[in-house]
Specification:
A two-stranded antiparallel ribbon has the order 1-2. The protein is 71% helix and 3% strand. The protein is rod-shaped. It has one helix at residues 43-148; strands at 27-28, 40-41. It is mostly helical. The termini are far apart. The protein has one helix and two strands; from the N terminus they run ββα. One of its GO terms (cellular component) is central element. One of its GO terms (biological process) is synaptonemal complex assembly. InterPro entries: Syce2. Residues 18-35, 46-67 have a biased composition (Basic and acidic residues).
């Protein structure tokens, strides 16, 4: 994990001397004014650099996560769209098969009904013929009865 300390010299060591004030802005690592040397490192700068680096890292990782999520959503949407297209195709095919089967059944039933209607027509014609024959027989019997009576 990167903590953003690569800009700090490897020999850096903070040891406050007696009488040196520690400021949040700068810290003197060598507070000996007699030497005339003063090296200062800004803790705030280090913290800001470290904080900025971590913030940038977090921001970059968050953005990458959002992009991954968006890619996943796009992939999911494509998969759903593909599934829907295939489902519509399958349902359409199934409906066509059902229609074809329904029409075949209609045709078979229609043929059977036609045969039954033909048979019914023949039976009704026979019934009508027998009804006429019975009426003639009834008249003949009625004539015979009238002729036998005085």
């Amino acid at each position: 994990m990167d903590f953003g300390f690569e800009d700090i010299p490897s020999n850096f060591q903070y040891t406050p001397k007696k009488g040196c004030e520690v400021s949040r802005m700068t810290e003197d690592t060598d507070c000996d004014s007699s030497r005339g040397e003063s090296s200062s490192v800004s803790v705030t700068e280090i913290q800001e650099h470290h904080s900025s680096s971590r913030t940038d890292d977090i921001s970059r990782k968050a953005q990458e996560s959002v992009e991954k999520i968006n890619q996943s959503r796009i992939s999911n949407q494509k998969m759903i769209d593909s599934f829907q297209e295939k489902l519509v195709e399958k349902v359409t095919d199934l409906c066509m098969q059902m229609k074809e089967h329904m029409y075949r059944v209609y045709e078979e039933n229609s043929d059977k009904m036609q045969v039954n209607l033909q048979e019914l027509q023949e039976v009704l014609e026979s019934c009508t013929k027998f009804s006429h024959e019975l009426l003639e027989a009834n008249r003949a019997l009625a004539c015979l009865r009238e002729g036998d009576m005085p």
